[in-house]
Write a structure and sequence with these properties.
alpha+beta, seven-stranded antiparallel sheet, three-stranded antiparallel sheet
Length: 171
Amino acid sequence: MIKDGMGHYIEYDVYDPTVITAEGDILNGKWEGEVKGFLPREGLKYAEVYKNGVLVSGLSADSLGNEYKYSENKTGPIFKDGMEAFYKYVLRNLRYPASAQEKRIGGKAFIKFQVDTDGNASNFINTNYVNAVLAQEAIRVIKAAGTWMPGRVKGKPVNMFLNIPFNFAVN
């Protein structure tokens, strides 16, 4: 139904081709006007408005009837006071473990963790297998930081993973 970047577009679920996941008009190869859709795995129905391919506004509803307004399709978890505040917090609270300093062990710890819909951090993973003592210190700092603002999909809070690097440089 699309010709020369214009027309009406219907997108079907890859796992169930009888389910329409998005439908709307395309202009110059981009969404234009109202787009309606459904995210089966999240259980969200949504309606969005696009202008020149840019999302202007959206409204989604879950199976319980809870509605969520949004202006971005997906956002990741963010520290409650913003990521700049988180990095300042890390600078004030991260301690180079004495045992690692003595052995001149350094490196970058990449810590992946989940932020749930209530903003709690859990499920910590040392993704690059840096020295365990360094990873434990990074995890300690994240745990002590408090709550986060959860990630969102079409406005609805969802459990989402975040990966943050911590640099331990040997002087």
